[in-house]
Each structure stands twice: as C-alpha cells, then as structure tokens.
Write a structure and sequence with these properties.
This protein is α+β, with helices and mostly antiparallel strands. The longest helix has 27 residues. The strands form three sheets. A five-stranded mixed sheet has the order 7-6-5-10-11, covered by helices on one side. 35% of the residues lie in helices and 28% in strands. The protein has two domains: 122 residues, Roll (PH-domain like); 52 residues.
Length: 197
C-alpha cells in the first residue's frame, strides 16, 4: 500500500509499528472495503463482512496511554490497530490524532454500510470481572496496611503504602473505568476509548 501513491481525500490511511523489528501494520479505509498490509501479507475485507469490532484501553510500561481496536471478519486474520508505534529501542510514539481519525472513519464506513457487526467496548467480561475483584481485594488490603501502620505509629511506612495505594487506585481505576464491557452502536463509538486528538 505504501507505494500506491497519495490517498484520496475521502479515504483514511493509518500505519503503526507494533514492535521495533517487525513489519509495520498498514490500513486504508477504501470505499468498498478495509484494506490491510503486514509485511508481504495483504488483503481487504468488504465492510459488510466485518463481524466484530472491539475498542479497549491497554496501557503498557513504555506507553501508559495506549488504545487498541480489534477487528474480526470471516476469511481474514484478526486485525489489530494500536494508537502507539515503536520509533526506537527506548521510544514508543503516541499517534493519538491519526488513530482517532482512522477509528472515526472506520465507524463511519461501517455505519454507512449498515454493518451487522457486533461493536464491543472494554475487555472480555470473563477477564474483566475477576480483575475487578482482585483490584478491590488488593486495594482493601493496602488500606488495611495503612491503618495498621498508623496504629503502630510507623508513619514512614504508612506514607509509603498510602502513596502506593493512591497510585494503584489511580492507574487501576482508570483501566477498569475505561474497559468496562459494554456494547455500542457504529454511529456512537465510546469517547473514553478514543484518544483526544
């Protein structure tokens, strides 16, 4: 796709590198289909053949603000689109605006095609709800440790655990708030799972 000339204004293209040494993933929103290329593999998926789309928030250690779209269609591999791209050994670049524009265009095409795809947001419920239970249990345990440390008048330890608890609640709370499993419509993608351009 990269050697095919400029993209017409009605189409949107997006590319990212999921790993430093791997081939870039390239996508284009064509009039009739979603076109993709990964290394020497390529294909296209007609809009009406897309069966499922999932948007989620997936931070990683080097990129705390990363969004992911997954697309399933019959006869095609699962297509994954991420809002960050590897630039160098130590740098992952945020691609918020190009990703947000691409995801908006993707949903616009699917809505216009009257797609019957299932639109999901967040993570799989079988992973999400056990994760919430563990998050709540760990948070409660840390809060108990803070209280015990204060009762024992070990203020340094209490401050350390309290700081860790605040960070844990902030990061974990954001993850679980954004990733609560729900369905949405093609014409109303969830704002929490699309970066602010």
């Amino acid at each position: 796709m990269s050697g095919e000339g400029p993209v017409p204004p009605e189409e949107k293209a997006y590319s990212y590198r999921p790993s430093l040494l791997g081939a870039p993933y390239e996508f284009r929103l064509g009039a009739q289909a979603l076109e993709w290329r990964v290394g020497n593999r390529s294909g296209h998926v007609p809009w009406r053949e897309i069966e499922r789309v999932r948007l989620s928030f997936r931070p990683v250690s080097m990129q705390r603000h990363r969004f992911v779209a997954e697309i399933w269609a019959a006869g095609a591999p699962k297509l994954t689109v991420m809002s960050s791209s590897w630039k160098s050994m130590m740098v992952q670049e945020r691609r918020d605006k190009p990703y947000a524009d691409f995801i908006a265009g993707l949903h616009r095409h699917l809505a216009q095609a009257q797609s019957r795809a299932v639109f999901e947001q967040g993570t799989n419920p079988l992973r999400y709800w056990p994760g919430v239970a563990v998050f709540a249990a760990v948070s409660l345990g840390l809060a108990v440790l803070v209280v015990r440390a204060l009762q024992a008048q070990t203020f340094g330890g209490a401050i350390f655990v309290a700081a860790f608890l605040v960070l844990f609640l902030w990061r974990g709370g954001e993850y679980f708030r954004r990733n609560r499993p729900r369905l949405y419509r093609a014409d109303a993608p969830p704002a929490d799972l699309i970066p602010k351009a």
